[in-house]
Design goal:
- This protein is an all-alpha fold.
- The chain has a domain of 29 residues.
- It is 46% helix and 0% strand.
Length: 81
């Protein structure tokens, strides 16, 4: 089975629509050693679309524990309802 990559057909449609160019541009200028917030959003959209468990998140996304921590923080703040 072929592994999914960021540019593959398997991940199309998990982006944020119109804000895609703005977010992808800002990710290119990020500090080395950090992860772009867009990758967290893509991971959450992937989870919502596929219905997979947190631990089954593909390896081309940030670690599931980190994605979950961001998601829980956004839920608690009311950012993600």
């Amino acid at each position: 089975m072929r592994e999914a990559t960021r540019g593959s057909k398997q991940h199309e449609g998990y982006g944020m629509g119109e804000d895609k160019t703005t977010l992808s541009t800002s990710c290119k200028n990020r500090v080395p050693g950090t992860t772009c917030l867009r990758s967290f959003m893509n991971a959450i959209f992937y989870l919502l679309q596929s219905g997979c468990q947190w631990g089954m998140l593909p390896g081309n996304f940030p670690p599931w524990q980190t994605v979950y921590r961001y998601f829980r923080g956004w839920v608690r703040e009311g950012t993600w309802n």
